[in-house]
Write a structure and sequence with these properties.
Shape of chain A: elongated
Distance between the termini of chain A: 64 Å
Oligomer: homodimer
Order of helices and strands of chain A: HEHHEEHHHH
Largest sheet of chain A: 3 strands, antiparallel
Helix content of chain A: 40-55%
Number of strands of chain A: 3
Radius of gyration of chain A: 24 Å
Number of helices of chain A: 7
Chain lengths: 206, 206
Amino acid sequence: MRISTLGFAVLGLLARRERTGYQIAASLKRPVGYFWSAGHSQIYPELHRLEQLSLVQHVVVDGPGPRDTKRYAITDAGRQALSEWVVRPPAAVESPRDELLLKVYSCWLADRGAVIDMVRGERQRNLELLERYSELREEHETVWAEQIRDPATAEFGSYATLRRGLDHQRHVLSWFDWLLGVLQDAAPARPGRASPRDSSPGTPGP
Amino acid sequence: MRISTLGFAVLGLLARRERTGYQIAASLKRPVGYFWSAGHSQIYPELHRLEQLSLVQHVVVDGPGPRDTKRYAITDAGRQALSEWVVRPPAAVESPRDELLLKVYSCWLADRGAVIDMVRGERQRNLELLERYSELREEHETVWAEQIRDPATAEFGSYATLRRGLDHQRHVLSWFDWLLGVLQDAAPARPGRASPRDSSPGTPGP
DNA sequence: ATGAGCATGTAACGCGTTACATGATTAG
DNA sequence: CTAATCATGTAACGCGTTACATGCTCAT
């Protein structure tokens, strides 16, 4: 029985501090969720598996609801399994499965105006994400000014991934702007197969 | 019965030219495979579904092997379904599921030298990908110099996605360099809690 | 002759998402 | 009183990957 990637994500969280399954699910939205996510229905079975392998342990604490509330902690074996996994080269995944890119790939046969609207909407969502990341980063840089320079602290791990997310959103934004520039400057042709760009009399695009 | 994202990927390829299932599988490695991929075992059933919906059609051509060789083409209904899908905002996916980032998130408790080796290896793979993309882009820019300025051509769609891939690899490279810089400049501390890399007599860490 | 490339399919399995199910406490 | 938050689980379903299965042609 081997450990799944989700298992290592869970171990990575528990290596920082103890958590209930519910808290792990919440953590896997923000900030870890920016590069890995899972619903609670995946987490509870995963915790059982990790416990069978003695990589985590739980203690029962009193809480609400019909079932026991369990607080999980990583074990020494868990920490070791995690640190061994960290330095193994990741499986080469060549396809980040980006639905937006797939749409852009086929955008040439769609209506120009509708494409521009869609791209503008995505650019806006990107901008909002970028601002959230910027705030997080500034906060992190002021609160953990020393730790983020030391690769032996958990805050360094958080900071390095945060930087990557921020850089990524920044670069996607500039790509959006390039794309919108080309889409807007080009002649207002109609979509699809036969599109006589300048066959009709009248005003051609600037 | 609704169309899956893979279905639209297949339609996007067939909108450019006719292909056999085998050729679609090959195209979904390069260049479309840089942002979407699938094995042939997924494609053949998908083509059957698309044909039931009258979005594609096939003609039998003679070829090798025990079964008929089928050449698929997109229909008008297929082109319309595709162009409608293109302008619908993509489902917001906040988690690109990056295993490398997950490793970096937990790198603080692993052995420093081993982390550096792993990151260097990934940087190298990134560099090779970057060069491949650069060549593709230059080729594209010279061969299709006019088409890539016209958003009504298929070459524009290819070029826009290629640009995104290239920009992305470039920015990941600079992130790698930043990361390696911090990892190398930092004090050679021991990882995690207890792992005395230099416990033998001599220089203790500051 | 041996293997690579062309060509099409099915089956098994794992991971991820969505929905189903229960119930206490606290804030509005 | 009603909704949100905390808390834990199972079941069904879809998509993706890997393996199984067949067989021709062409180059080495």
